[in-house]
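dude i think i finally got it to work??
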Amino acid sequence: MVARFLFERRQQSTVAAAAALFLPDNTLILKTEGRASEANREYRALAEDYLRAGQTDPRPSLPARARTIPMAVLVDRGTASGSEFVAAALRDNKRAVLAGEQTFGRGAIQTIMPLGNNAAVKLTTARFRSPSGQQFEGIGLRPEVVVPNQLSPADFGSDTDSVLRAAIDKLVR
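look at this
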């Protein structure tokens, strides 16, 4: 149970670090909610919420414009878990629009509890929520700019990428 909790904390710290690069100081990034008190937590754009011992904070070395320039996040059915959390943090904090398809919807925190005799049970013990309180699990995120993605991976970022084109069009309007 401790290893699983540490893994989840590491993932949440990584999400907070990625989102914090583009958000003002102390901005709410992610919430976890569960029955146990240690499962209830908020992650913010603060070094103590995403740095591990010995790490250097990359935020001071970024241009200030990184936290204000208009952005779009491209999402699809494969966008899940940590990438959904970053996308939601940027959207909920009015830093980015989402473009593409509805995301996968992975937002449960599961804990493996050993039962003995080489048996265990995996229980959902908490859920992730976006800064606005939205749940992810089984729901996903609906983008503001809905564009079905019919491209092969080789075409991503090319002139034929309709999701990228729609995101750019939305930003320049």
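The radius of gyration is 18 Å.
im so relieved honestly
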